[in-house]
Amino acid sequence: MQNLWKPLKTGYTAELLLDLPPSAAFMYRTGNNMVPLLSGSCVFYPSGFEGEYESQDVIVVGDEESKQFVLAGAVTAFRSMTYFKLIKHGRFHSIVVHQPHIRENMTPEEVIVLKGDDWRDLMIQYAETTAKKMGVKPVDSRKNLTGYCSWYYYYANVSEADFDENLAALAKAHKESPFAPQVVQIDDGYQPFQGDWLKCNTRWTSSMKEVASRIMKNDMTPGIWLMPFLASTASEVFQQHPDWFVKGADGKALAMPGWSPEPDHLWCCLDATLPEVREHLTYVFQTLHSWGYRYFKMDGLGFCMPEGTYSDPGVTPLEAFRIGMKTIREAVPDDILLGCCPPFMACLGFVDSCRIGPDTSRYWRNPEPELVNCDSAPGSVCMVNALHGTLANWFMYDRYYRADPDTLMARADNAFYTFGEARLSVLLGILTGVCITSDHLGTISNERMALLERAATLRLRDVRPGKWVKDTWCQIFTGKLDGKKAAAIFNDSLETRRYDLAELGFENGAMELLHPMGFVTGELILAPHDGALIVAG
Length: 537
Description:
The chain has about 525 residues and is of the alpha+beta class. The chain is about 20% helix and about 25% strand. The strands form 6 sheets. The chain has an 8-stranded parallel beta sheet with strand order 19-18-17-16-12-11-10-20. The chain has a 6-stranded antiparallel beta sheet with strand order 21-22-23-28-25-26, with helices on one face. Helix 6 (about 275-290) runs parallel beside helix 7 and helix 8 (about 385-390) packs parallel to helix 9. The longest helix has 17 residues, at about 160-175. The relative contact order is 0.10.
């Protein structure tokens, strides 16, 4: 596509003309952050299929009858993200590509066009090419990653007493349970203000160094949450160094509304093109490392490429972000970095794990009346959105990084979902191999603890969508479990559904492992909001 690029005031654009049959009615769209782009961004057949449809990073269009598919996707993100728009009037007309911030003296990000008879193969080829172009090291996922995160039980109100109570239960599970937590991560709620990551608030009497020591004494790895590039205007780091932040048109630090309550609600982004900021980032991470932390949940990364004025006017916002990420990676080269709320491609080569779906929740759907239909509000926090976002990004699993589906929700206490919905949540850990939970292991029932233990010990590999239905998210994913043909089935609908095992490739039946149903032949029946894991006998 290099000869198709045209410069604009706002970057570069190109147009790719498509040659597909008039009957072509397949589209697969994606988002460049962990929030799903739109309801149905997985496999989508809009009614009438006329108009303009946006996608980010990559898009696939095609015709299922003739098995003709075209993929257009960015394989680099060093200076700019890449945005696609499919324009269709009567038949597929074209894909318009836009890359903001690319100036005339810069080379556009590389975009490839792939054609083939199976869109899933194209997605895998695309992901592998992107990982290579972006310098991603081979992902080691031989063992499922297990652990604990305080957020989805206590949220920002977590106290040291809460944490110690959970630590005792985690230590017991570490010795006695197949779940055996490897990482114990303190989430948002320990710090006085966003940005002051080396201090504690009044709910914590011990220092974070002392807390890490208690985790290590129980043979588990300390983890901690922070938003490395962000600080609220109430924080000490902002009060002392307002000149360290990206500036707005008025020459002052550019403040963005965050999710924290007042006075912690206005956030500013550190300008990583400043040497002093890079020194600050290095100091924060190396200090936490010296205290024993080896797992860093880096949140708020989607806020960290603001349009504004940087100290180095020659860099784009994405370049500044990657300068900061490189600084952190070099500060703690052997520790686990988890990107959260991340721009997916901009993180490539720097993070070990990455959140690929939205925040989960104690609720299947958001309980607020205006958000009862969670799918109609893709940014809202609920279990079903976390499910859909994780499944939509299946092609990233173990190719870009370890894919984090957010915490697995199995418990019944302080939670508002069914046992079947808990099975759906836990099934995401079996697909991705990342099994972090916020469940209190001292109060969870044996029956629900068994779900977490399944997630810790089982892994579906070589995952890809199986059979799918129009106008729905993919519900069936095939792969291998311990070398045997296997499939994960997600019935996220309001209907009981029947699945013909022969159509799924299990002509001789299969063993179901999550309920368990035992050995199933002929047809598998799933209740609404329930999941199953089957493996060939």
